[in-house]
Amino acid sequence: MNWVGFSAILLLLLFNNGTSQSIIKTLPGYSGTLPIKLETGYIGVGENDEVQLFYYFVESENNPETDPLLFWMTGGPGCSALSSFIYEIGPLAFDVADFDGSLPSILLNPHSWTKVANILFIDWPVGTGFSYANTSKGYSSSDTKSTKDNYTFLRKWLLNHPMFIKNRLYVAGESYGGKLVPMIAMEILLGNEAGLQPQMSLQGYIIGNGLTDPNIDFNERIPYAHRMALISDKYFELAKVSCDGKYDNPDPNNVQCLLALQPIQECINSLNEAQLLEPKCKFIAPKPGDFGWDQTFREGNSVDHLFLPTSGHDRLWCRTQNYVTSYVWANDPAVREALHIRKGTIGDWTRCNKSLSYEENQESVTHYHKIFSEKGYTVLIYNGDHDMFAPYTGPLKWIRSLDLTVDDDWRPWHVNAQVAGYTLKYKKNDFSLTFVTVKGAGHTAPEYKPIECLAMLHRWLSIWPL
């Protein structure tokens, strides 16, 4: 055995502490054997592996040996990977139409991204989903700590799954997870350059409706509202002049700006910012001083605050009602046993944990995108165009700061002979960035437009024009 092979084995032995994995063949709610290869497990990170990060891994339904590997970051911070898995891009979905409050039935998702890729979903940061810590200190996390923990997690996972080390790797995520995506990609890049094992086949990254820089993303909400005919020209022009184009966290001493923002706030406060075309439902009272949205993208969908309308044909449907299925399912003892959840590690599972000890200590990640634009990677940035949480105008603004050349100008892209959205492609030497809007989609685009989003991913991974 050569030294490289011996080193890899030694590294695997050193890294293997605090890890476990199980192949899941059946699940409560699904009749028969699962037609997919699903694995769950824990990987220890941090000091003495005090943090145990839980994951779901699904092999590609096409060709797992050659299809790419997506390392997926759900948003929040604190929203469970199960949310993305079940409601967006995973191969399984709950039967929400026939849900009666008991254990929900599980259906197959014909538009799962596992049709074209292997996907590794992680419950990050610690305290999210089924991830836990062995010490109280271990529950403290931040953007920078989560980045390093997730990178360590991926190194350990790949060492335990050497058959996927050579697969094309893309770090991917949405909402607040989009902030971590380039940070983790940078850790991988630096680790590869330093010769750390395993050497990962990083090709680029994917971000959906993501946070990049609040000074850009949040400030674009009012210009976006104007574009969408939610506020009048008069209101917008007055605010633009009075606030000098700075609408987010305005100067409290600028009385003219504050007065100009008042009618705007009245116009948009009754809207569902995650999907403008859907009804706004009561979650929790908005924080004073903001415009009714949580600036860290935490979703106020705790089942304790869920507003369930009265029954009947005329009742108001709210998308958050769908999420009740996840609370019932993930808190069922038989489900936890089937997923091999370690007993006593967490109490009630919540879709989005809003009580994390988490420091958002990396305000902007634009400089990471700038560094990658100087290297030969490929990037996909997509946005549902009816999302006012993280409007599509934000990425367009920070992308312009990267000094790229337009390679394919703004044009529609199609699915089933219909316009599915609009796309714009940039290049700089060997670097390419594809920007995509998904027509009619909200904050978590694949949840609203699954057919279109799978087509988008498939074409992009196949290096076909959208």
TrEMBL record:
<dbReference type="Pfam" id="PF00450">
    <property type="entry name" value="Peptidase_S10"/>
</dbReference>
<feature type="signal peptide">
    <location>
        <begin position="1"/>
        <end position="20"/>
    </location>
</feature>
<dbReference type="GO" id="GO:0004185">
    <property type="term" value="F:serine-type carboxypeptidase activity"/>
</dbReference>
<dbReference type="GO" id="GO:0016747">
    <property type="term" value="F:acyltransferase activity, transferring groups other than amino-acyl groups"/>
</dbReference>
<dbReference type="InterPro" id="IPR001563">
    <property type="entry name" value="Peptidase_S10"/>
</dbReference>
<keyword id="KW-0964">Secreted</keyword>
<keyword id="KW-0121">Carboxypeptidase</keyword>
<dbReference type="InterPro" id="IPR018202">
    <property type="entry name" value="Ser_caboxypep_ser_AS"/>
</dbReference>
<keyword id="KW-0325">Glycoprotein</keyword>
<keyword id="KW-0378">Hydrolase</keyword>
<dbReference type="InterPro" id="IPR033124">
    <property type="entry name" value="Ser_caboxypep_his_AS"/>
</dbReference>
<protein>
    <recommendedName>
        <fullName>Carboxypeptidase</fullName>
        <ecNumber>3.4.16.-</ecNumber>
    </recommendedName>
</protein>
<keyword id="KW-0645">Protease</keyword>
<dbReference type="InterPro" id="IPR029058">
    <property type="entry name" value="AB_hydrolase_fold"/>
</dbReference>
<comment type="similarity">
    <text>Belongs to the peptidase S10 family.</text>
</comment>
<dbReference type="GO" id="GO:0006508">
    <property type="term" value="P:proteolysis"/>
</dbReference>
<keyword id="KW-0732">Signal</keyword>
<dbReference type="GO" id="GO:0019748">
    <property type="term" value="P:secondary metabolic process"/>
</dbReference>
<dbReference type="GO" id="GO:0005576">
    <property type="term" value="C:extracellular region"/>
</dbReference>
